[in-house]
Amino acid sequence: MMNKFSFFLGFIFQTSFFIFSQQDTVLLNLDYRIPKEYEIAGITVSGENVSNPDLIITLSGLSIGQKVKLPSDIFSDAIRRIYKNGSFENVTISLTRVEGNFIYINIDIKDRPRLLAVGIRGLRKSEAKNIKEKINLKKGDILTTYAILNAQRIIENYFVKKGFYEADVRYYLSSDSVGGAYKTLTFEINKGKRVKIEKIHFIGASAIPESKLKRTMKDTKEKRIYGIFKTSKLIRSDFEKDKYLVLQKYREQGYRDASIIKDSLVRGEKGLIVYVFVDEGNRYYFGDITFSGNVKYSDEQLKNILEIKKGDPYNQKWLETRLYMNPNGKDISSLYMDDGYLFFSVSPIEKKIYNDTIDIELQIYEGKQAIINDVTIVGNTKTNDHVILRELKTKPGDLFSRADIIRSQRELMQLRYFNNEKIGVNPKPDPVNGTVDLEYTVEETSNDQLELSGGWGMGRIVGTFGLSFNNFSARKLLDFKSYRPLPSGDGQKVSVRAQSNGLYYQSYNFNFIDPWLGGRKPNMFSFTVYHSIQTNGISKKKDGTLSETGDTLKRQVIKITGISLGLGKRLKWPDDYFNIFYTLGYQHYYLDDFFEAYTFTKGRSNNINLNITLSRNSTFDPIFPKSGSDISISAAFTPPYSLMNKRDYSQMSDEEKFKWLEYHKWKLSMTFYSRLIQNLVLMFRVKYGFLGMYNANVGLSPFERFYLGGDGLSGFALDGREIIGMRGYGNQVLTPRDSKGRQVGATIFSKYTLEFRYPLSTNPMATIFVLAFMEGGDTWLRFKDFTPFQVKRSAGLGVRVYLPMFGLLGLDYGIGFDKIPGIQDPFKGQFHFSINSSID
Fold it and tell me: Residues 115, 138: contact at Cβ < 8 Å?
């Protein structure tokens, strides 16, 4: 009985793949109880919109002359192969004729519909275009059910991310006018209203305030008027990440078993109300912390680094920070790795949990100290290897030190030759020999700069042209094949700059810097030569001629020519962040009836001075520092001529007194950076300047003075003056004036700046950050009037954009809070443009 039933099922299964045609063919010869071998004598293809019959036959795996046994699975396998192609539906194989041992079969098939076009209804053209790009369906694509539903899902998610949680997306297919397999797929879209998060509630949360949990969530925020940088859309993937951050916050407080049971969304009057259900669990505390395997350092030394005491809330993240990578100080891993223990490892083991206390054992493997074997550079296509290698603190033969690697990366960033985000190091340890190879990876970036600008100075437009080549090579000057457009790769800097507004002002400047003079030690050499001319606009040809009104024209002019040589070196004490730089300079001033800006208007002055600058810069990123400081103090001296001769300066004219300038000049600048939250950085800067004299009978030098206010862009360089920017006030308006209202320059100034900075882009090809600032500053003519904290105040907002070709460009809007009598009223805003931190 069972055999008969099995045979009947097999018969039904085999014959289900055949549709017998109504022909005068004797089919009784097929006895399905006795398998028999046949030969396929013919194959035909039929069906709706069949485009390529030969392809279908090939896909089936059947061929004329093929021997087949009936009954068998050969035809069901052929159907599966055709379906697998994905282009067809409703596949049927029919036996049409039997002639002895020969059979004829037909494959009846229907092509799946193909896409003719995608239509979008209910949206603007721009939105429809975005939708079509996202679903990425092209003409000729097969319209499977999966493809259509997937496109529908993409559209729904697109609108969910934009806050349209009630968007309705429907679709339908329509044929073209001539019919056929090509269909138009149209999506009918109703976005509905944008829905934002109205409220977030944490149900079951009592140990941590709900407000703190909300702040923990980075991307899931309630709707707020002041929410500038974060939107209040609910994006499920971001929400899941934020729930994890909430759990991390609990675990940092000792709630290691905390969990989020579920969440739910409810439509409120003004948006979504999000409920997060929390199970806080019990709070745990650190118990005894013991060490094993440590030989180099004692338990007491390691505990001092760990800074975790018995009874502290159990914080897994803090434990890992103190063990592996503490951004704010020492950790146990860096303690070992800074001393060469590259193969060091430490594993925290929870030895015992009782009540609410967890005992920890820190299992340490010290290994042996690793020696640096080889140091290589990869990725430098322009900068020569020796320029990079000389900046590295990791040398072959030295003990491995993670601190030295970090410092080396910092030095490479300071060069500004490379993409800071791509500077890396690949240690290749060899545990058998106790050595490690270091491979530094860099990516060259453009750092030459072009300056083409127009400014406003002395009531006229001043044009500027400048070129700076920041990776120049003087030794390749005679190698003309290396000119692209100038030889490069040796880390030297050469710049040329010219300014002019025609007859009124011209200035020319050339500067050369070699940071490694001789190539063996970091001894910096600089050479600068410059020349400037300022006149009243009357040319030499018209000097002494009559004007149209009959007045005699007189050319008024001041010429300044200068040259300076500088030599500096890096110091190793108090630490190797210190630098000292000496500059010997000479300026020659020639005045010919030059207005009344000084106490004399005709004559010559000479200025020989020695400037000494001691600086310390521990910032990491030169464009957007997040930590560290930049401090410098400088002093400039001229020879005290009046103290070295017996001349009576009290009886001399100013023209004679200042033929050889004498002064001493002091400046102090201190800048500190501190990361507050994530990438929000606080910058605080203090600056002072003082110009003094040796002899009261000579008096203060009319040159080398300080001018405060505005954007710090002078428009032109004149008489050694220092232009100091201060936002919220007009250019140089915070500068002392004489009884006639003329600016005479200050001999002392103070300035204080507080900035909050936040980066929008850290791409080295276009670094952008915004800032909010508060400033205070003022100038004084006499030291006895100096009141450093009674200053003019201002505040405002700004943006900085760093482009390698042009440097750091800035735009600020500042409001001055104090009145400058007769010049500027308080609380009037001003825009300021700056170049390369000129406003600092």
Answer: yes
